[in-house]
Specification:
There is one protein chain. The chain has 112 residues and is mainly alpha-helical. It has one domain. The protein has five helices and no strands. α1 crosses α3. The model has no long low-confidence stretch (mean pLDDT 85).
Length: 112
Amino acid sequence: MFYAGFMLYAGIVVTALIVGFLTLRAVTSRNCFMKAALYHYFLNSNEAKGETHAKDVSLPSTAYDLAIRKFQKMNASLDDYNFCFEILNHQMRIFGSRRAMLQAARRRHFPK
């Protein structure tokens, strides 16, 4: 009786750990793709090009900084949230898949 109860609880704990791990991976992956989409957007935008007037600042690092700032503000307002997902959808239409978008971002010096 004790052994059956122990196995039941052990199975529940293992299942919870697996579900937690897979959920964490999905959230991390989603965040990376969102940042990559924003990175592509800012790399092509005039806003990033306008902020790289100093000689020691590169366009990829400026675009990445802008993407991170916009991503961090995404939950602050509905406008920022909608903007980020519109950019993600637009980049998905351009590249066709998340994997292709991430590979293109890495080719363009995306740090992750």
